[in-house]
Amino acid sequence: MSQETLVKRQFGHRARLALAPAQGLKTDNQAHVARTMWNLLHGWWQMMPKEMRTLANADAAIRQARDDIDFLAALPAQAAQAVLKTYFQTWKNCWEGRADAPSFKGRFRTVMSVDIPQGRDLNITRVHRRWGMVNIPKVGRVRFRWTEDLPVGKRTNPENRITGARLIKDALGWHIAFRVQTLEAAPSPHQGPEVGIDVGVTVPIALSDGETYEHGEWLTQREQAKLLHLERRAAQRKQHRKPGERTSRRLHHTYDRIAGLRAKAKRRALDWQHQTTTAITRAYGTIVVEALTITNMVKSAKGTIENPGKKVAQKSGLNRSVSREAWGRTVTMLTYKTARHGGTLHKVPAPGTSQRCSACGFTTPGSRESQAMFSCKNPDCGWSGNADHNASRNVLHLYRMGLALTPAAGRAGVRRAKRVKPATAR
Ligand SMILES: [Zn+2]
């Protein structure tokens, strides 16, 4: 028993906050100040000569601004420091080619958020089976929805800690995203079977053993009709707006309701993704997926004027479904969930998986009869079946051939397939 090794795990946990109206206004205000602080900092940066742009100077400027401008004091000092840190990190990311340069943040296009960088400020207690209380600096004690997967409290490892949090406002209101750090027993290697997964065109997720995971529409008929109605009304109101006229209160209200319905659909989609990926990572020890670079796919289908893309319609159809099912997010979930369950995730280069016959191995153009059906053109074979199922079997086949990409190659795009051992025992 004492032989088991402990591993540190860091992850986020998001919960809805039940803010009283006055607390909601205070939190809104903090977010506005945080944005203003960012803009002041960006203005300062652009004004300063290059050699003066240091963290210490920026810090001094922020302190001065907090003394001079009364309303900036609404934001706790720690949160102001977090803005400074994020701003400098954004420049660093930009210089290292990971992100765009920081820019001014507009009032309506910016996600409202406030950072609480230190976990000890939060003072979390559980008050009810379903509710916890958290301390939000300069706002007060606030109730939030407690779920069993928040790994703090009496019954869990005392080493589990919440190292900080971030308040985020979306169309459904204010949420808190805790940064959690836990110490858990390392999972024993998953002995489950191997499986290949395909991004389905006709079904959202198709597995190589014939299993499929499907879902209905995210919004009910009534909600869809409502959304359509609201979108039409917003378009009409926008049309009747004179040039230069401000967006009316009524139009803003319509936009808010549209955003609310979209957020509802997104939340349901996320829920489905979580359930599906948990079920898959529990059942299988080795999971193989296609190494798709989604951003490239969405961009490349159309091509340029000089070099127009081929099969634009088919590709954009696939792209739409890929984006809609948010395949990238599914892979992220699969990655950390396989690690938690002791399994392994592998990526294989994607090209050809939908054209190759998984029964005989022949790749003949035109074998894919339609989006849904695959029938082999090899006269000796003649296999036919669901196209997504065929592709997922090919994905697994590529892994068994030793064509899985090493993690580094997978990140940098499909460089060159390297041979790796089929189960990384460690
Ligand atoms: Zn065949």
What does this structure look like?
This protein has 426 residues and is of the alpha+beta class. The chain has 2 domains: 1-180, no CATH class; 194-217 and 268-411, no CATH class. Helix content is 40%, strand content 19%. It has helices spanning 21-47, 55-68, 77-95, 221-239, 249-283, 294-300, 312-325, 327-341, 387-400, 407-411; strands at 6-18, 113-116, 125-126, 131-136, 140-145, 161-170, 173-185, 194-199, 205-207, 212-213, 286-291, 344-349, 373-375, 384-386. It has a 7-stranded antiparallel beta sheet. The chain has a 5-stranded mixed beta sheet with strand order 10-9-8-11-12, with helices on both faces. Helix 4 (221-239) packs antiparallel against helix 5 (249-283). The radius of gyration is 26 Å and the shape is globular. Residues 295-301, 314-322 and 408-426 have low confidence and may be disordered.
Q: Which structural traits does this protein have?
A:
alpha+beta; 426 residues; 5-stranded mixed β-sheet; 2 domains; binds zinc ion; 7-stranded antiparallel β-sheet; single chain; globular
Major sheet summary line: 7 strands, antiparallel
Parts with pLDDT < 50 across at least 5 consecutive residues: 295-301, 314-322, 408-426
Task: Look at the helices and sheets and give the structural class.
Answer: alpha+beta
Instruction: Give the terminus-to-terminus CA distance.
Output: 19 Å
How many structural domains in the coordinates?
Answer: 2
